[in-house]
């Protein structure tokens, strides 16, 4: 689901980039470590800062950053220029143009809660992940998405949303193992999981 005008402003600005670098990245690195030399996939890459973080801070050699919204992919490409190793393409995270078992690190900076049938995204990401791949995720949960105040300003699917535990369970059902987790109230959290080798 594409962002409404307000959320577009929330994610397309320097404050969001600062938060990704200084608030989210340290947590995810502490839980899951770096992914040096890996091919990484970022879903819902937005303005492109996540791809920079994945290359510079996590050490991925190549980053494929997909976004459902063509305008977002174009903005990311403009912001990041022709940085070698960063690739921005328009694609849906439930139908990725990547071969099975090809990716060593998956990044979800607040995207899966935008997918109406979010369980399909989990199955698709599991398909393209190689054995031993890691998922680094920051997610937003039912408690926040379905809160009357947030519903007034942000636009998200309201049915079939998930809690932190339900998000982790969906990955565990695919066989993934939890390496670390942290929540910030019931509305937001981080998790790193690993696909069995
Ligand atoms: C909340 S924004 C997060 C953007 C960026 N990851 C960040 O942290 O700033 C969610 C992004 O996911 C994209 N998106 C929504 N549904 C998607 C889908 N099914 N597949 C790929 N991207 C999707 C939106 O266009 C938007 O850019």
From TrEMBL:
One Pfam entry for this protein is Methyltransf_11
Q: Where is the Methyltransferase type domain?
A: 41-136
Hydrolase as a keyword?
no
Q: Which UniProt keywords apply?
A: Methyltransferase, Transferase
Would the keyword Transferase be found if you checked this record's keyword annotation?
Answer: yes
| UniProt lineage | Bacteria, Pseudomonadati, Pseudomonadota, Gammaproteobacteria, Alteromonadales
Protein name as annotated: Methyltransferase domain-containing protein
- What InterPro entries does the record tag this protein with? Methyltransf_11, SAM-dependent_MTases_sf
Q: Name one GO molecular function term.
A: S-adenosylmethionine-dependent methyltransferase activity
- Give any single GO term for biological process: methylation
């Amino acid at each position: 689901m594409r962002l409404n005008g307000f959320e577009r402003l929330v994610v397309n600005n320097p404050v969001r980039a600062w938060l990704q670098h200084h608030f989210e990245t340290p947590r995810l690195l502490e839980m899951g470590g770096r992914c040096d030399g890996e091919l990484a996939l970022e879903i819902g890459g937005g303005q492109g800062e996540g791809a920079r973080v994945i290359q510079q801070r996590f050490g991925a050699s190549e980053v494929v950053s997909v976004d459902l919204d063509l305008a977002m992919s174009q903005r990311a490409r403009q912001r990041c220029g022709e940085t070698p190793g960063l690739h921005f393409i328009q694609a849906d995270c439930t139908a990725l143009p990547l071969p099975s078992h090809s990716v060593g690190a998956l990044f979800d900076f607040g995207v899966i809660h935008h997918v109406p049938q979010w369980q399909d995204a989990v199955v698709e990401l599991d398909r393209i992940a190689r054995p031993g791949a890691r998922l680094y995720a920051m997610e937003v949960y039912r408690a926040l998405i379905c809160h009357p105040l947030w519903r007034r300003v942000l636009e998200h699917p309201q049915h079939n949303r998930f809690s932190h535990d339900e998000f982790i369970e969906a990955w565990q059902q695919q066989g993934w193992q939890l390496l670390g987790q942290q929540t910030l109230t019931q509305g937001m959290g981080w998790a790193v999981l690993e696909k069995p080798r």
